[in-house]
Amino acid sequence: MAHLPAPALLQLSNDMVKLVVGKGRKDFLVHRTAIAKASPVLQAAFRSNTWKEGRARTMVLPDDDPETIQMLLHFAYVGRLPNLNTDDDYSSIGNDHRGQYDGLARLYCVGEKYQNKDFKNATIDAMLSKVAIRDNEGSRWFPSSPAIKIIYNGTPEGSKARKLMVDIYVYGVGAANIVAYTLHLDFIKDLIAALTKILLDGEIPFFREERLWIPSCEYHEHASGECCGSGERLTKDIRGRTPL
Ligand SMILES: [Zn+2]
């Protein structure tokens, strides 16, 4: 059985920097050690621009959303995302099923922008967990057009999150449903490529939802062959909540 690694002892010195985020200029005072964990991009910017951001110890991020950056910083300090199903503070990213997928998609893209693989992988796990768990009426919820557009606009070709979106539609939703949405053109191209490959391989593409209910490292970013063990933890968590 995989165990969560013990969190590293927090280094709470007085070495702080300030992020000023969004149009409303929300301030976040952050330990420099947490900035390093949150993003190599931010760490390098604070280090290299000693004449500007470094000396002032302030960086302005006008194009980012404060709640999304807050989640990135939360992850840097705590080492995990809030639990989608039990933690109240998750409502900050979306308080209905579709809104939560849109929020998770935004989190993934901020992880992409600031190059935090662990954060991206954790966001993928939250989406996989959400895909797998039925609501009180027994229905499953899937990411819809806005979440797919957010992912496709905020990630490069070949992204694991793009692959997850495609696989959800190939294995979970069924291609027939895509006509109901206005989707991203690159998503349609990836979907057709995935379906073509499956048909050429002789695989039956639909009604294989269980493929999505078994979380794995397939959608994570780490060295090939490496397994972070989160699939086992997620499966246990999902089995405890809903019949598969
Ligand atoms: Zn993994």
Spell out the blueprint of helices and strands:
Blueprint: E1 16-21, E2 26-31, H1 32-38, H2 40-48, H3 50-56, E3 58-61, H4 66-78, H5 97-113, H6 117-132, H7 145-154, H8 160-173, H9 185-200, H10 210-213, H11 230-239
Parallel strand pairs: 1-3
Antiparallel strand pairs: 1-2
Helix pairs in contact: 1-2, 1-4, 2-3, 4-5, 5-6, 5-7, 8-9
The structure holds zinc ion.
The site of zinc ion has 7 residues, from loops.
Biggest sheet descriptor? 3 strands, mixed
Please tell me how large the radius of gyration is. Answer: 19 Å
Order of helices and strands: EEHHHEHHHHHHHH
Query: What's the number of helices?
Result: 11
Query: In which range does the helix fraction lie?
Result: 40-55%
Instruction: Report the mean per-residue pLDDT as an integer.
Output: 81
Helix-strand makeup class: mainly alpha
Cα separation of the termini: 20 Å
Total number of strands: 3
Small ligands present? zinc ion
Low-confidence stretches: none
Q: Determine the strand fraction and express it as a percent band.
A: 5-15%
Shape: globular
Widest sheet: strand ordering: 2-1-3
Number of domains: 2
Pfam family, one: BTB
Domain BTB: 15-81
InterPro entries: BTB/POZ_dom (IPR000210), SKP1/BTB/POZ_sf (IPR011333)
Protein name: BTB domain-containing protein
